[in-house]
Amino acid sequence: MRAAASGSAARAAETPCPSDQREAAWPVGELRLTGHHHVPCLAHRRATDGFDLYVFSTFAFDQLETLLDAAQEYGVALELGTGTTTID
User: Fold this and answer.
1) Which of 41, 56, 57, 59 has the greatest number of CB atoms lying within 10 Å of its CB?
2) CA trace torsion 10, 17, 84, 46 (10° rounding)
3) pTM across the whole model
4) Domain holding 74: CATH number?
5) How far apart are CA 18 and CA 34, in angstroms?
6) Model confidence over 23-33: pLDDT tens digits?
7) Counting beta carbons within 10 angstroms of the beta carbon of residue 30, is it exposed (0 to 12), middle (13 to 18) or buried (19 or more)?
8) How many whole angstroms separate alpha carbon 80 and alpha carbon 30?
């Protein structure tokens, strides 16, 4: 599963990932193997304020739920397939 977080909602991706996410330590375009809420995941920094998180499909529901929980305070757009749904 791929979960993308960008803009102010990208800070939600920082919460459960124990990585140094300062731009000097993690430049745009680089990948990191890290954990997302105690589950291994691959994190790709797409932009200064944008991340893609990749987790095994067996953990997809729980990981998405954790990310959405963390993103509530920032606002979040959830993309399903080709459409976009905004959750307030």
Assistant:
1) 41
2) 60
3) 0.68
4) 3.30.1360.120
5) 7
6) 888 899 999 88
7) exposed
8) 25
